[in-house]
Automatic annotation (TrEMBL):
Chain segments annotated as coiled-coil in the UniProt record: none
Pfam families: DUF3798
Organism: Keratinibaculum paraultunense
Protein name: Uncharacterized protein DUF3798
Keywords assigned: Signal
Signal peptide start and end residues: 1-22
Transmembrane annotation, as ranges: none
Tagged with keyword Signal: yes
Entry annotated with the keyword Transferase: no
Length: 389
């Protein structure tokens, strides 16, 4: 009897020991999984995104965009600038970009610059740190950028030859006047946009009128061109009526164009550089505090109020912010989204619908994306959503 009891006790002890060992192993496995998950979460938490822009004096918009995002995400975004004398210090610029890749926490590097020559940095990043996401807006050959940069973006300046007349038509225009001058029309992008404007006007039934102004680059500077506009615009409106859209290919033209529009009530669907800070603040005498210089919602509200006072509601339009501000901010938000969701850069990201929807969600202002061509799926051209004052 005693032997049977001893055997039973021994069996119970063995069962408890076995269960205890299993629990220890299970607890150990759980702890290991938890540690791995914590390490993974810590890796996502402690990551950095590098943004490279020109200096403040070289390109104010791009610089401010980078600085604002570094302020918004101080523990994530690291903002550095290219050399002031970019062309003479190209190698220094490349070295600065590569220095970002030396940081083991760096998960994405973004270069937003209106210059070319920085592609070697991306080639070396791909060799040195293929895990780093690369995004760029530069003036290098798109085909090469598509090869060495994960995702590239550029403003679709030429497509605006279609979108501006289309918008003008919707705003009530019957005539479309295009002001430019010889040295500007010699630029391929300006010439292509003008040709597309003319073609689109024909398709829409808009009368297209081309007028050549004095050339500010070969004559007496902008003053002669502006004086010509001041005298010619009233003649054209008297001839074609206020249901006329006026487009000028050169930024200094708009101090006159916007001013005359407020007087003569014609349509300005978009400036050559469609931003609320081009001409509007000066012509409308907007009082913008220093701290509000980047507050485009407030600036747009002020413009809308002045437009209403002038009886011009719905006759003036543009983009809600400069694309040079929009694009760097959007690129940082996109990189942040990819990293934090541990996503692959595949057709789910390189997708017009996704980019259109994501841009609206994170920026508040939507963009209309399209691939560069049917053979390039990681280089996108974009135009921004319009705002009507």
């Amino acid at each position: 009897m005693i032997r049977k009891i001893a055997t039973l006790i021994l069996s119970v002890i063995m069962i408890f020991s076995l269960v205890a060992c299993q629990n220890v192993n299970t607890d150990k496995e759980t702890m290991q999984n938890s540690a791995a998950n914590n390490a993974e979460m810590e890796g996502v938490k402690n990551y950095k995104i590098g943004i490279v822009t020109p200096t403040l004096s070289t390109s104010e918009d791009e610089f401010r965009a980078g600085a604002e995002m570094a302020k918004k995400y101080p523990d994530i975004v690291k903002h550095i600038t290219l050399p002031e004398n970019f062309n003479a210090e190209l190698e220094t610029g490349i070295s600065q970009i590569l220095s970002l890749a030396d940081d083991p926490e760096m998960k994405a590097i973004i270069v937003n610059s209106g210059q070319s020559g920085l592609l070697p940095a991306f080639e070396q990043i791909r060799e040195k740190r293929p895990d780093i996401i690369t995004i760029a807006t530069m003036l290098d050959e798109p085909e090469l950028m598509a090869k060495y940069v994960d995702i590239s973006f550029a403003t679709d300046w030429i497509r605006r030859g279609e979108t501006i007349p289309t918008k003008a038509k919707k705003m009530g225009a019957k005539t479309f006047i295009h002001y430019s001058f010889p040295t500007h029309l010699a630029k391929e992008s300006v010439a292509q946009r003008k040709e597309m404007m003319e073609k689109t006007c024909e398709e829409l039934g808009l009368k297209f009128v081309e007028i050549i102004t004095p050339d500010p680059q070969t004559g007496d500077g902008p003053a002669a061109m502006q004086q010509f506009l001041r005298e010619d615009i009233p003649r054209q409106i008297a001839k074609y009526g206020p249901d006329t859209n006026i487009f000028g290919s050169n930024c200094p033209m708009y101090d006159v164009i916007i001013d005359e529009a407020l007087k003569l009530k014609f349509i300005v669907a978009e400036q050559c550089c469609p931003t609320p800070t081009q001409a509007y603040p000066t012509v409308m005498n907007l009082e913008i505090d220093t701290e509000d210089l980047g507050n485009y919602d407030k600036i747009n509200q002020l413009i809308a109020e002045k437009s209403k006072e002038a009886g011009m509601t719905g006759r003036l339009s543009g983009w809600a912010m400069p694309s040079q501000i929009y694009v760097p901010k959007f690129e940082i938000e996109l990189a942040k989204y990819i990293i934090e969701n541990d996503l692959e850069i595949n057709e789910n990201i390189l997708n017009k619908k996704f980019l259109d929807d994501f841009s609206k969600k994170v920026m508040g202002v939507g963009a209309d994306f399209r691939p560069l061509n049917e053979n390039t799926n990681n280089y996108f051209l974009l135009v921004l959503e319009s705002i009507y004052y």
